[in-house]
Amino acid sequence: MQDIGRLLLFAGLILCAAGAAVLLFGRMGISLGRLPGDMKWQGRNWSVSFPLMTSLLLSIGLSLLMYLISRFRK
Q1: Could you state, in order of their start, the residue ranges of all structural domains in the chain?
Q2: What is the DSSP string of 5-60?
Q3: What's this model's pTM, rounded to 2 decimal places?
Q4: d(Cα 15, Cα 35) in Å, to the nearest integer?
Q5: What is the full per-residue pLDDT of the chain (74 aa) written as tens digits?
C-alpha cells in the first residue's frame, strides 16, 4: 500500500510541475501548440493541427526527466 501512496504523491508532484510550467510559458508569451514549427491548416468548415515542435519539446523534456529519475533511483 505504501508503494501506491508514493506513486500517487509523485504523480501529483509531476502534474503540479507541469501545470506551473504551462502557466510560466503562458506568461512568457510562449503558448504550447503555437510554436514555430507547429503546423495548422484551415478550410471553411475544417481545421487540422499538427504540433510538431511542441511534441518534440515535450518528448525531449520528458526523456530528460525520466533519465534524471533513473539516475537518482539507483
Answers
A1: 1-31, 32-74
A2: HHHHHHHHHHHHHHHHHHHHHHHTT--TT-STT-EEEE-SS-EEEE-HHHHHHHHH
A3: 0.61
A4: 22
A5: 888 888 899 889 989 988 898 888 888 887 777 888 899 999 999 999 999 998 998 899 889 988 988 888 76
